[in-house]
Amino acid sequence: MHDIGYAPDLAVIGFHPLDGARYLNEEGAPRRVVDLVAFHSSAWVEAQEFGVADELAEFHDERTLTRDLLWYCDMTTGPDGTDFEFEDRMTEVRERYGPDHYVTRALDVGMDERRAAVGRSREWLTSVGLADQV
């Protein structure tokens, strides 16, 4: 659901975290879900590159394990559902978007935050015995 803003019928400004969050908000989704969609996977960095950081500020970045786990799923799964190691997924993103796209430009700025969220997720998954299931 975090990428719902990619749906052509929902794309208002063309920045999928914001388009998706606004749509879910209008549809009455729980505020926590709306906020998680708005801020998934270092969206704040991409929002700066895209020029909509002020608009993204209407939402809240909760910085919790739930958020980290969402990012983990996004950062280790390709668009077609293929599993990736984190670094391989980042390479896939760069190759798919190309060097001049705002997503690629924002990737390095948010890389430490992405890497940290994936690390915290892996630690938690290991601590509860689920690391070998994801």
User: Main beta sheet: strand number and arrangement?
Assistant: none
Mean pLDDT: 96
Shape by Cα distribution: globular
Encode the helix/strand succession as letters.
Answer: HHHHHHHH
How far is the N terminus from the C terminus? Answer: 18 Å
- Derived from helix and strand composition plus strand pairing, the structural class reads mainly alpha
Contiguous uncertain segments of 5+ residues: none
Cα gyration radius (Å): 15 Å
Fraction of residues in helix:
55-70%
Number of domains: 1
Walk me through this protein's architecture.
28% of the residues are buried. The mean pLDDT is 96. It contains eight helices and no strands. It is 59% helix and 0% strand. The chain is globular. The longest helix is centred in the C-terminal third of the chain and has 17 residues. It has one domain. With 134 residues, the chain is an all-alpha fold.
Give a short synopsis of this structure.
This protein has 134 residues and is mainly alpha-helical. The chain has helices at residues 16-26, 31-38, 43-50, 53-56, 65-75, 86-97, 102-109, 111-127.
Topology:
Layout: H1 16-26, H2 31-38, H3 43-50, H4 53-56, H5 65-75, H6 86-97, H7 102-109, H8 111-127
